[in-house]
Amino acid sequence: MPTIDVPFYGNLVLGLVLVSAAYTFAMALGAARGRPQLLSAARFGTYATCAFVALGVCLLAYAFQTHDFRIRYVARYSDRSMPWWYLVTSLWGGQDGSLLWWSFLLAGYTAACTRWLRGRYLELQPYIYATLMSILAFFVVLMLFAANPFATTVAAAPPDGEGLNPLLQNYWMVIHPPALYMGFVGWAIPFAFVVAALMTKRLGDEWIKGARLWAMIAWMFLSIGLILGCLWSYEELGWGGYWAWDPVENASFMPWLVGTAYLHSAIVQERYGMLKIWNVFLLLLTFWMTIFGTFLTRSGMIASVHSFARSDIGIFFVYYLIALAVALAALVIWRLPVLKSEHRIEALLSREFAFLLNNWVLLGMMIFVLGATTWPLVSEWLRGQEVTVGPGFYNQWMVPFGLILLVLMGYGPLISWRKATGKNMARAFLVPLVAAGVFGAAHLLVGDALGFPAIIDSDEIYATFTGRVLAGFQSVAPLLSLVVITFVVVGIGQEFWRGARVRMRNKGEGFLTALTRLTMRARRRYGGYIVHIGIALMYFGFTGAAYDVEEEAALHPGDTMTVPGYEFRYDRPRSERDPNRRMVFTDMTVLDGDDGEALGRVAPAKFIYRTMPEQPTTEVAIRTNLREDLYVIMSTVDPNTQRATFRVILRPLVVWIWIGGIILVLGSVIAMWPRARDVLARQGQLKRKRRR
Questions:
Q1: Which residues is 561 bridged to in the sheet?
Q2: Is 305 helix (H, G, I), strand (E, B) or coil?
Q3: d(Cα 369, Cα 73) in Å, to the nearest integer?
Q4: Which are the contacts of 680, defined by CB distance < 8 A and separation ≥ 6?
Q5: Is the pLDDT of residue 305 over 70?
Q6: Of 187, 378, 177, 186, whose CA–CA distance to 297 is shortest?
Q7: Given 92, 119, 158, 488, which residue has the most CB atoms within 10 angstroms?
Q8: How far apart are CA 424 and CA 432, in angstroms?
Q9: In the predicted model, what is the mean pLDDT of the chain?
Q10: How far, in Å, are 72, 261, 475, 477 from residue 472 at the CA level?
Q11: Model confidence over 533-592: pLDDT tens digits?
């Protein structure tokens, strides 16, 4: 048993967080209303509030490590056999703890932002602190009155806990939820900047520059969370895919879409003072969608394998979302006269207009996903019956959206700012278009022989004219996708080559030196290009889904099954045990389909956990190369006859999704990394202010 009364001190700390947040909120508003001496009090209050939240997390972590089963949340999401690292992950394994973890990450962001601000943006600081404290206070109220992670059981403490869900006892649980939460929570900082700008009427590019770093950090972590979620789904859930358009997946994807639109749109405001209303709207909507996504995950109103159980917590989110929407709409309407752009888009053939189109496409994708995700609720409300929307429906509509977005991703970097001339366009587009045309012709000629036909068969999801058009588009989508990917990659490569060639000619540098220094001197621009290359490679991996091949068979030891190019021989089942689970493996040998040469071994398995034997997990075996994945699922095995049923999926190009994701993260880091010159200049400014 623990040596301290964790439930008592935990509830005390939550109360202190609420009091401290209210105090800081009041001091911040006082500073904003003409009493600047209170700004220091607000700053120290912010640090104190963040420290109390960190103390609360430490208390809950201590309760898990000491098996304090008096606490209902600890008893439900842990047991004595779990290793310490899964006891740590149990902090965010359930609803109550995940809200405390959400608050902890927000406190971390808030403390880091407070430290970063120091002498920056003094006019905005009071409202930034007030906004962040109001968000934190909402989540503390949730915990105190609806989902308390320190609530105790009514009866005596059980001798052991129920244990963490077997699907969550996986190394991805250690890294995926924190990364995703970092992405969700991070948007609160740029949101606080835009609210402060609206309140103070300082709606030039000051707040855009202040919010830029934090928006990029949030976007990067949200991207990492989505990619890790795909990996977790692919490796652990055992259904054979990486994205199922599940409502909770969509809840993370929607703010990513709007946040991506904001990051592009903000560039135009910084450069030419345009799209001000767009930037305010997109950033407010991004934060609102993170709260809406949190609501979808925790309300239980929409069925999902990822969501928490249905609870009364949803009504708190509904009230908060409505209050946010009304307050933010009123704030924007109030400041509309100040949100007029300084300049107008001069020509349709310009990078500014391409960015505006990018905004519309990304917003359209978000609205479509939002409508399809919430359709079960809408249909139940309108018709009295719940109608769900399957992955096929999403894919039929989102593939065209995605290809349009991919075209804009290649078009934007090549088109000139303000107004493009025919000569400039010909010079910029010639090589990428020729390369795309050559690749498309080659795909038509030899794609079938290589196992990647340019035209595929596609089913109609509904028998209407629109359904037939969408099915026809799906038939040529792989060809279009690979052609546009070629256009994007060659176009971006051309930009790198031209910039490096100028340095080689003017500075006498070698190619690699010129390329490196070019990228480092204009990190934001070329880091963004690297992100685009990563996304293009991810599209390449997504395109491989059009060529999936799936086979199923029931085998006895010694039997074989065939998929194109491979043969699988079932050798034997075997069992292993550890203190937490029993593991049943089925060893298989992978053979070359032509000459029968052994290529390697795989061992798909089932894990049966001691605390939840009724929920065995499917442990897939994956053999990966640059061309394809061999994805092997063992569905059942008879312990008496040793007969096992297998499902084998040949999944081309999947590894390029993960390679593209790594490049995306690398580009994000480069784009946000400060130059040494800027850091030194900032330090000099701070020193001069201290001397004064």
A1: 568
A2: coil
A3: 33
A4: none
A5: no
A6: 177
A7: 488
A8: 14
A9: 89
A10: 54, 29, 5, 9
A11: 999 999 999 999 999 999 999 999 999 999 998 999 999 999 998 877 899 999 999 999
